[in-house]
Amino acid sequence: xxLDAVLSRIDTDLPQATERLLExxxxxxxxxxxxxxxxxxxxxxxxxxxxxxxxxxAEKRETPGHPMVVGHVDGDGPHLLFYGHYDVQPVDPLExxxxxxxxxxxxxxxxxxxxxGRGSSDDKGQLMTFVEACRAWxxxxxxxxxxxxxxxxxxxxxxxxxxxxxxxENADELKSDLALICDTGMFESRVxxxxxxxxxxxxxxxxxTAPDKDLHSGMYGGVxxxxxxxxxxxxxxxxxxxxxxxxxxxxDGVPELPDDIRQQWQGLAFxxxxxxxxxxxxxxxxxxxxxxxxxxWSRPTCDVNGIWGGYTGDGFKTVLPSKAHAKVSFRLVGNQxxxxxxxxxxxxxxxxxxxxxxxxxxxxxxxQASTTETTDPAFEAARVALTNEWNVPAAYVGCGGxxxxxxxxxxxxxxxPMLVGFGKDDDQIHSPNExxxxxxxxxxxxxxxxxxxxxx
Length: 456
Ligand SMILES: [Zn+2]
Known about the structure:
This protein folds into two domains: about 1-200 and about 370-455, Zn peptidases (Aminopeptidase, 3-Layer(aba) Sandwich); about 200-255 and about 300-365, Alpha-Beta Plaits, CATH 3.30.70.360. The protein is about 35% helix and about 25% strand. The protein contains 15 helices and 18 strands. The strands form four sheets. Strands 1, 2, 3, 6, 7, 8, 15, 16 and 17 form a nine-stranded mixed sheet that branches. A four-stranded antiparallel sheet has the order 11-13-9-14, with helices on one face. The mean pLDDT is about 95. The structure holds zinc ion. Zinc ion binds near residues 122 and 123.
């Protein structure tokens, strides 16, 4: 009954909510370019006063970079935290935009109305879905349903340099029962999704040196060891013929998929033919005894991202090079330990080196995967709430990429993150002509109202 009142308030107030979002989108809060620092301040100020207008005690908190916005409302029941970011990506190449990226507007398209402008999907539109849900709740009930902390960042698109120190310094204030994060999308633009698995990442650059100078292959070819031959043999040995990674101990800590998640994923009817067809491919190339969706969400990988050495210019040069290089990365899942895998990989390379060869390594990042336990009943409650709003069974999904904030909530604040977002695959985030579907905005707001109702 009361939820219905909030939902119809959301429907009635959608034009005003859209106006507010357009206002926020006009602020040029590009975080990576110092020329826009004042605009980031303006966006933070705008959010502070918008939160204050719904009774939240909010303030701008300075950092060495762009400010955080933190707001609190007291209440009974669980303490929920909501995270979003108000900064946006740069807009260049500007000539590829059909309109001024900071003069947003509603456009009618074949698939329905969209909000066009930089930050509409990533992440201002998504951030405002939660704020608008709270506003509608407050106007129907006079207060919010529980204790809520609002936490908005202004450096997400530029590597979040102030985030970890800020979370550490303010851990007591930010620690909560559940951290709601709205910066993700819907599976295949149609299935409401809670992201519970994010893969980690480990990078290694290797350089193999054989002769101490480049040689002429007419004079030395045959007798001198060629480091490219050594490198390619080692790289080729990193997978077996079933697509499994051969680094010793690599699969330590890789969990099997729980049955309920496996069932949900089967229900997603993921069409790998289309997924691969879109990029001119047809056959999944990962572990052959795994489904394609497992390959991208719940299985670890090893990929060579770059390889060079010798002569690669126009024409031909019969060089027998001194050095060969490659960049290799690993996507990690479960409890795989990036440091152990780095050591094991390096040992594999050293063991495979023939006489007269030397190897140098340089590491690039090492982040563990983050997996959210969905045993907290809040997850099932949120999943049902999303299902009710979208009339499509919501799913716990993986994300092949990395969202560091989720891990920070877990590690620094001991707070479980719940990632729910309404972006669509064609939102063109980080690209020209970014948009957010009006459906995402409207039903996103309604989704949060349902989730708040379900959690309190
Ligand atoms: Zn984002």
